[in-house]
Amino acid sequence: xxxxxLASSIAQVRTWLHSAQRIAMLTGAGVSAESxxxxxxxxxxxxxxxxxxxxxxxxxxxxxxxERVWDWYAGRREALKAVRPNAGHVAVAExxxxxxxxxTVITQNVDGLHQAAGSPGVLALHGNLFDDAWLDSCAxxxxxxxxxxxxxxxxxxxxxxxxxxxxxxxxxxxxGENLPAEALAAAEAAAEACDVMLVVGxxxxxxxxxxxxxxxxxxxxxxxVVNPDATALDAExxxxxxxxxxxxxxxxxx
Length: 254
Ligand code: BV8
Known about the structure:
Belongs to the sirtuin family. Class III subfamily. By secondary structure, the chain is an alpha/beta fold. The chain has helices at residues 3-18, 53-56, 59-64, 66-80, 87-98, 113-117, 144-147, 181-193, 211-218, 245-252; strands at residues 23-27, 103-107, 123-124, 127-134, 168-172, 196-200, 222-226, 239-241.
């Protein structure tokens, strides 16, 4: 998309946003790319470039190879410590501060960067990489973080809960696992009610998150895709903004 074409599309979308009472934003790994977080499907550096999702981000994979899976998450946690929200995350949070309750952020990301930028009420559909959970139910019925101090793993040794001996897992949603019902219901409601749905930095390959763009379109919202590349949700879009989110979002949200 030429610079002029992008500029005119941005101008068009800005008019939709100015008259929108309610805006929903669905984000994926691409919104964190300019913070230095590898996306999942980027061929060069993507997290999946070296393995398939079902090899690591599933309960079976963790049960079969706890060390390998835990190391992958411990490495991602470690890498995220040096990472900061980018101008796209900040533009969203600042817009929300200026216009309370007008924009709902729905994210597939587990990196916590929207929250770190100051966005309130983020609907984290796939959990948070920094939270721990037990692999099996635990007699203490409380999260390890409350029940027992779980130190970040020593590579190769996923921690066990000191109280109940349960294997500890990252509190993210793995493939084949249901999404948190409350967050998903709130996301569905936001998609149904919005006047504009911004779909930012996602390939649109992972469901049911991707389906929120379809829900918004069917409910009559203007759907806008912000992504330098083609996505599986382009057919739902009324506007395609082919650019990086850290520069497009600050131009859209004022
Ligand atoms: C479930 C946490 C019920 C873990 C993740 C319907 C149809 C087909 C399949 C299914 C379906 N329903 C369910 C499924 C199965 C499955 C699924 O969707 N499979 C896919 C692979 C086909 N879904 C599930 O299993 C979900 N659970 O439905 O429960 C159920 C129960 C039992 C049995 C069946 C169903 C759970 C899905 C959640 C999985 N967990 N994450 C972890 O992080 O380790 S998903 C993981 O991958 C991420 O969280 C993220 O959500 C996803 C990656 O997607 P993206 O964020 O879009 O990232 P990607 O790299 O793909 O794209 C990045 C984009 O950014 C690119 O387009 C790129 O161009 C762009 N970009 C790059 N730079 C920039 C940029 N954009 C803007 N600016 C830039 N600078």
